[in-house]
Every structure is written in C-alpha cells, then in structure tokens.
Amino acid sequence: MIDFSVYDEQFPHISGWKCQKCGTIYYPAPMLCKKCDSRRDPTTGKGWEEFNLEGPCKLLTWTRVWNLPEGFNRKFLMFGMVEFPNGLRASGRLEAEGDPVIGSTLTASVIEADERPGKPVKVFLFS
Amino acid sequence: MAPRIGIAGIGHCRFGNSSDYDLVDVIAYSANDALYDAGGLALRKQVDQVFVGNMAGGMFNHVTSAASALVSRMDMEPCPAELIENGPASGASAIKMGYMAIAAGMADVVLVAAGEVMRSVSGWEATNIVATMSHTEAEYNMGLTLPGFAGMFTRLYMEKYGMTERDLALVAVKDHANGALNKYAHVQLPVTIEAIADGPEANIVNNYIAEPLRMYSTCPITDGSAAVILVNMDSPKAKLFTKKPIMRIAGIGSATDTHCVHNRKDPLVLDAVRLSSQMAYKMAGIGPKDISFAELHDAFVIFELLNSEECGFFERGKSFIGVRNHETDIGGRIPINPSGGLKAKGHPVGATGVSQVVELVRQLRGEAEEGRQVKDPKYGMAVNFGGFGNNVITTIVAKD
Prior knowledge:
Chain A contains no helices and eight strands. By secondary structure, chain A is mostly beta strands. At the A-B interface, strand 4, strand 5, strand 6 and strand 8 of A face helix 5, helix 6 and strand 5 of B.
C-alpha cells in the first residue's frame, strides 16, 4: 500500500533527486532511473537521495511575460531557464533590473507563491 | 498489408467566436458538413466508428464525454464513439486513431470530428487552462505559460542564428495574407510590415506578449470545429462515396519528447517533429522535396520556422532566410500555411489537427480560394503539436 499523506514543511525548498544505485541526478523527480531502471517510491524515497536545488546557476534564456494567466495581478513577470553546476536545468521566475544577459551567473532560491487558488506552491526565483 | 485509407468528406466552420453555442453543436455542425461533402447526411448510417478530438471541454465548457453526446446529437446510435485527448494535437491524434481502426480491420468508415470553444472563458483563464499541459511542479506552478516558453525559445533562436523581430513579423505578414483569403479563417485581414514592424506605431500595434514575441507572433484564442470522413478505399463501402475524389492518407508519423522543456539536450531542437515527419515520409515513400505545401503548427510563428527546418524544408537556422526570400509564399518553392496557419486561421486547440488536414484536402482537390490555391499539388503535409513540441503528429495526404 502507498500512503500519499503530506504535512507542512518548515521552509520552502525544491528537490533534486539522485539514484543511489548509479548516481544519476534528476529534476523534477522521475518515477524510475533511465540509466539503471531503479524504481522510485514517491512517498518513502527509498533508494534515492533528495537534495535541495538552489544556489549559483547560469542563465540560458529568459522572457518578460505581459499576458499572465488568471490570478497574477501584476503588469508583467520575468521567467528564465538556468543550468546548475551539476548539469541539472530548471525553469522559474527571474528577478533582474533591465534586460539580463544570457550566460550570466544568478542565484536560485525558493519562495512560496499563492497567485492561484488552492495551496501555495514552491517556485524558483533566479536573481 | 494495410488497405488504402482516404478522406472522402471534409467539414469546417468559420473559426472565430462561438462562445454562445454549445461545444457539441459546434462539433456536430462540421461533422454534418463532412457527411454532406461526402455525399449526404444519410451516410452517417454507414459510419462504423466515431472519434472526437477535444482538449479541454471539461474546463472550458463543463462538457465531458463529448463523443457520446455527439453520436446522440447526430442520430448515430449505436455507433461506437470515443473522445481523443492529446492537448492541441487532439485532432491529428483522432485522425490517427481513425486510420488505425480501419487499418486494424475494425471499421471501414470513420467519422473524425474535433472542436474547441475556448472563448467561453476570459483570455487570462484560457491561457491558464492551456498551460495545464505543462509539467505541474516544474513548469505550471512557476507561473509559466505557453507564450512564456515560446518567448524563451525565440530568444535562444535569435541569439544563435541572428534572426530579428522583423523576421518574425514577415512570417505573420505572409500568414495573414493567406488567411485574408480563407473563408474559414478567424482573422481575415491582411497586415503590412510597416504596421507591425517598420512603422512609427509598430510598438503599439504589435505590442509584446512574451518578449521577444509580440502579438503578431502569437495565434489568437479561437473557437471552431472541423471534421473528416475516413474510408477504407478497398472496401465495398468506398463505392458509396463518389461525390468527391477520395484523397489518400499516404503517411502518418508521431513521436514524443521530454515533458519538461528544460530537460531537452538542446532546447532548440524539436526531436518529436523531426522523428514524426521522418516516420510519415517513410510510410509515404517520399521525402521533403516531394511535398507540394505544408500546414505547420504555428501557435507562435517561431514554431512555423522551426517545424519547417525539422521537416527538412530548410537547413537548421536558415528558415527565416527562406521567408525573407518568399520561398514559403503561395507561389514559392514550398508554400507554408496557405490556410493562414494557426496565426491567422486561428487555433481552437482540439480542432486544429483536423482543420489542418481539411486544408490539405481542399488544396489537393483544387478547392482553395483564388489567390491562395497552390498550383497542381500532389502531396500536402500537416504537423500538429501537442504540448510544447512534446507530442507531435505528422500527416501526409496524397492526390493519386
């Protein structure tokens, strides 16, 4: 039997995952390792190492979005795609003065966002 | 050996704003249109299977089980009917399922009808609903939308290949010129390069949506439906469909790619487009040079450019040069989106794949409007995206 119950966290974080059998890392979480076929149980994480994905990263591309979806009561939001030193990539929100430069080093942190109905969600902030 | 499978009837409504109408009625209109085009409404009793393409009727219209509703609305019970959902490629997937049902020997005549009524909600909500096809944790929760991804994608392409925002506008000018002549198109107005790129008020007329994408780099939010009648050309039932020449489906290919865009080895490479087109070419026994014209999924004009490269019409990074040289115009080397594409014809997400194939048939029959009819076409190709290029269906239709 699997139990999907969750409880509130003390601080927001977003996880990367490492297969303990072969060492391959992933974000977001896979359900199996594409290299060694190890299965991941999303509730226990047995056989997998979870680590916080944050810190320095390189900006690959970015955009400034002016037509945000319902719930986002802002004029615009910036988004970027980054690569971490371990090779993992992620997409998230971007905070920058003016137009950022592709290839520049940013810092990834995690915040909680509540623009949409329902539970707050964890969001990358690259700044 | 699989039988020859062709398209005996086509139906299409005027794309635009149908938000006062019931989703199932909108789909049924085009289904009736296709039956009439094939020879008459009585032919509905010859249909062995119905497939309905729809992406998000449950969210846009609070309508689920649209296939069950359609057969009842059209007096077609007890004909088997299923709903096919594959995001914005639901239409092409429904055609693929129809083809497979005939090839498997389970049907000789299949009605494929597809539709979407998106303008029943606000533009903000529609953008949000479409964004639900992205990865929940790693993309949707971030607040990212399809225009957001397309903006990042376009910036990468511009940085790598030297394309300009004016080049994007040239694609829109070409698509709107074609759409202006298409009786089914949502936007039937041409635009000039002065108005949207070169003129002093271009920044106002053509404002940013997701930089560097502007309004004229992006498809409108559109309602509409389209339908086709698929027939086993080698079956006795084919003799009932003599009103119009049957156009043969020569090739179908489909492929998937990573759900998360950032997990692609090179985010600028659309593997699923290339692989699906190669599958379709192989099945048809032809190559890119044999294609007379193509309908390419241009929800954002950058996709028209990238698709034309992945399908083999241009070298990587060279498609926008081809647009500058008018190679993709109606009279050019490889006309692309003679219908106006998603950009001008509109993109009712679940209907688009069927609408593209309807355009292939109209062109191959020589029924397109004067000024946008491709000269003596032999093979038409359609590429329909589900997600951000992560589930793609390519269909090639031939005039034998």
